[in-house]
Specification:
With 93 residues, the chain is an alpha+beta fold. The protein has one helix spanning 23-36, and strands at residues 8-10, 49-52, 56-62, 67-78, 84-88. Strands 1, 2, 3, 4 and 5 form a 5-stranded antiparallel beta sheet that branches. The longest helix has 14 residues, at 23-36. The protein is globular, with a radius of gyration of 15 Å. The protein starts with 7 loop residues before the first strand and ends in a 5-residue tail after the last strand.
């Protein structure tokens, strides 16, 4: 059976895995690097981050209307403590 879990790729030089980033994830990641760089992890202070190769689909229930809203994000995680950041993928990416 195929593994449907996204495979992490590292931003740290020399640890990049062979999996290419999904195009929307890559464009969003590049935009984040230009605008905020690689800030330190708020939990441990390290600046080494990894990025999952595929986008993450999030579904948010709207309790007052009984409807769900969905959006896509990229998952970036600290290579030291595994703290997870989510950044939305804009619809124009």
């Amino acid at each position: 059976m195929a593994n449907d879990n996204p495979t992490p790729t590292s931003n740290r030089q020399g640890e990049q895995r062979d999996l290419p980033l999904d195009p929307a994830v890559r464009r969003t990641h590049e935009r984040l690097l230009r605008t905020i760089g690689e800030p330190p992890c708020p939990m441990c202070g390290h600046t080494d981050w990894g990025t999952y190769s595929r986008d993450v689909g999030l579904t948010l229930a709207e309790p007052s209307h009984g409807e769900a809203a969905a959006f896509h994000a990229i998952l970036i995680y600290c290579l030291n403590c595994q703290f997870i950041r989510l950044h939305g993928i804009p619809s124009n990416v």
